[in-house]
Design goal:
Length: 164
């Protein structure tokens, strides 16, 4: 599943419901979420249920992580992967892994950035995003994102490694 370079938060997980589960007010905006936070250990059995499409689970992207995630949801994930790989290597970010999600056009790119502060990691994410925007139409988001509530700083667990 996910490389050990990008540790999963396992003391809780997010379970997706078919309908809106809660309304969240954050910084003057209202967010609608289908995810419920479950404060129970994320077991391998639950992950296997997710991989078999019996349930949909998400994990928190911690604000103090030594990585960030580029969440791509566009039409050309192979082209995106090719472009972002070059940009990352140009920034000396050589440790990254891409994973496929349930949606065929969806790609999660986990990027290891080492032991840097959250503001430095956010700035690095912005630099990568700006460089990508010079080459591609923006169809991605960077996580963690301090402008979103905790219930939105989550990503569905991936299903398999992307063979870009």
């Amino acid at each position: 599943m996910i490389s050990t370079l990008f540790p999963l938060i396992r003391d809780h997980y997010w379970l997706k419901h078919p309908k809106i589960f809660q309304e969240i007010t954050f910084e003057g905006r209202t967010f609608l979420s289908k995810y419920e936070r479950i404060d129970t250990y994320l077991s391998d059995e639950l992950i296997e249920k997710h991989r078999n499409h019996k349930i949909t689970l998400a994990t928190t992207i911690p604000s103090d992580a030594n990585y960030f995630v580029i969440d791509y949801n566009g039409d050309e994930k192979e082209l995106f992967y090719h472009k972002v790989s070059k940009i990352l290597r140009g920034q000396d970010l050589n440790e990254f892994a891409a994973y496929e999600s349930k949606t065929p056009s969806h790609l999660h790119l986990y990027v290891y950035c080492g032991d840097i502060s959250a503001p430095q990691r956010e700035e690095l994410g912005k630099i990568i995003s700006n460089k990508l925007e010079e080459k591609l139409q923006k169809q991605w988001r960077i996580f963690p994102n301090p402008g979103l509530p905790d219930a939105y700083n989550i990503l569905n667990l991936p299903y398999q490694t992307f063979k870009g």
